[in-house]
Design brief:
By secondary structure, the chain is an all-alpha fold. Helices cover about 35% and strands about 0% of the residues. The protein has 2 helices and no strands. The longest helix is centred in the middle third of the chain and has 21 residues. It is globular.
């Protein structure tokens, strides 16, 4: 089972990644497309911060898995083609990723 953030339900940041903060993190631009995507998360009750953390953590999980299982060379961005959704259950409230 994946360890998740208590704030967002997204996968926790691995210890080895804590010292790695990209220089470009301060220059992320809010585009029309990003605003539209954030609006979808807002409909699900997430703040913009939670939405960005969740989305980025989800894709980062896919990248780490692709590298760990040697589907892609380390450092190469994998092509993500499928998102698997589980049927809704009342006790799932607040769970975002497993």
């Amino acid at each position: 089972m994946e360890i998740v953030s208590t704030a967002t339900g997204a996968p926790a940041v691995p210890d080895e990644a804590l010292d790695k903060r990209p220089v470009s993190a301060d220059t992320i631009e809010m585009t029309e497309a990003m605003g539209a995507h954030l609006a979808v998360f807002e409909e699900a009750g997430q703040s913009p911060q939670e939405a960005v953390e969740f989305a980025r953590a989800t894709i980062a999980l896919a990248y780490r898995g692709a590298w760990k299982f040697q589907l892609y060379p380390p450092g190469m961005a994998p092509r993500v083609g499928v998102v698997q959704l589980r049927p809704y259950a009342a006790d799932d409230r607040g769970k975002t990723i497993e």
